[in-house]
Amino acid sequence: METKGSIRKKLLPIVIFPVILLSCLITVTGVTLFYGFYIQSVRNELVSTTDTLLDCLNFTISGDYYYENEMLLKGDLNITDSTMLLRIKEQSQIDITFFWGDLRIMTTIEDEYGISAVGTKASADVAQIVLNQGERYFSQNLAINDRDYVGYYVPLQNSDGTIVGMIFAGKQKDLVYKKITEVIIWFATFSIITIIISIVITLKFSSRMIADVNNINNFLKAISEGNLRTALGNSIVKRNDEIGSIGIYALKMRDNLQKLIERDALTELYNRRSCHSMLSAISQKNELYCIVMCDIDFFKKVNDTYGHDAGDYVLQQVSDLIKKSVSEYGFASRWGGEEFLLVYKLGYEDTVARTQQLRQSILEHDFTYEKTKMDITMTFGVADGAEFIRYENVIKKADEKLYVGKNNGRNQVVA
After folding, report:
1. What is the Cα–Cα distance from 192 to 210, expressed in whole angstroms?
2. Which of 61, 98, 145, 192 is most buried, by the most CB atoms less than 10 A from its CB?
3. Are 414 and 404 in contact (CB under 8 A)?
């Protein structure tokens, strides 16, 4: 059954969405905090500028402020000179304005055509707070001469406490927002880089995991199609996580299915069906092999005399000896009842020699069940797979030799 989705496609949104959300939160929070800090920094800069101007005027020039003949005087000195104000703007991008009352009499503010704002008035709100109430005033939203400003106003007082005007220091909002835009770009770039790194790490981390999951999927698919000899990579079972556990359980399931389907439950040897399948594969590959058919002598007498439990014990003991004999040289199956078929991937003479050794080991084995010792022997018929094209004919030849041995006194190898 084909899957409609991909773990990787599902994993990426799970990882990337929180990263994107976190990056957006960091960006919004960072920009908001920076905006607050930057506006406060601008305010401090404007406060410092106005206070410095006032200190320069008050400490270097004695006398009160007067406005006569379109000139601002302090004492007897004319201070109507924009040179210093223009230098301040050139160095700090801060516009300076001197007010007499609410009237701009000296300023660096110009409109888009370069026309000075001298002669224009402050807003009524500003005049009320600064001139009438004598308080300093800061605002982030000031419209002056068709431009938006962040500005700061300070009352201009004479020695008797009379408020005669104001000093204004301000920055155009475009300049403030330009700096904030740079920060937004920096945060956005950081977020994009973070997202890209997260995607790369996720893909790299998940690639091996997805590969192992796909291997398990293919492994289980092969089992579902009846291929119980399929293998699973060692890298999966070595994983120290849930995927490794799934791999181990999948292998155990395959092994149990093999035992259930391919092996005899009592002896754990291959069953007749599995043996046919394996012999067919050997025959098709033209591999070297010999077949041995063997039978436990007088097994019915064992069952009748000692009981079926004793008979099962004998079958299990004989099977263990057969397993040791074939070992890495081939395989064995329980052909039916007390009859066994052994396949040695050896030459004929070597097969006969190992069969003789097996017969002798069974003869010498201690078959004692519930303190009762039983004498067990076996008869064997050996056929060379190289003599016949079809493996069925080799089985038939070995079976014929087995019956020759049984008719000639049993406990022998007929080759």
Report:
1. 25
2. 98
3. yes
The DSSP code sequence of 322-371 is: HHHHHGGGEEEEEEETTEEEEEE-S-HHHHHHHHHHHHHHHHHS-EEETT
All structural domains of the chain? 7-179 (3.30.450.20), 226-262 (no CATH), 264-414 (3.30.70.270)
78 closest CA partner among 65, 87, 89, 88: 65
Please state, in angstroms and rounded to a whole number, the distance separating the CA atoms of residues 276 and 24. Answer: 66
Beta-carbon contacts of residue 61 (< 8 Å; ≥ 6 apart)? 74, 75, 77, 79
Give the type of residue at 228.
L
Distance CA 410, CA 415 (A): 14
Sheet with 65-68, edge to edge strand ranges: 65-68, 71-74, 77-78
pLDDT digits (tens, 9 = 90+) for 107-135: 999 887 888 899 999 999 999 999 999 99
Contacts of 25 (CB under 8 A, 6+ apart): none
* DSSP 8-state class, residue 408: T
pLDDT of residue 1: 44
pTM value > 0.90: no
Interval 270-298 mean pLDDT: 92
Residue 127: C-alpha distances to residues 48, 49, 103, 169, 376 (Å):
21, 20, 10, 15, 123
CA proximity to 359, closest of 310, 409, 411: 411
* β-strands 378-384, 413-414 pairing: parallel
Rounded CA separation 176/182 (Å): 10
pLDDT band at 279 (very low <50, low <70, confident <90, very high): very high
Segment (H or E) for 268: none
Element containing residue 290 per DSSP (H, E): strand 290-296
Half-sphere exposure of 175 (CA within 13 A, CB side): 13
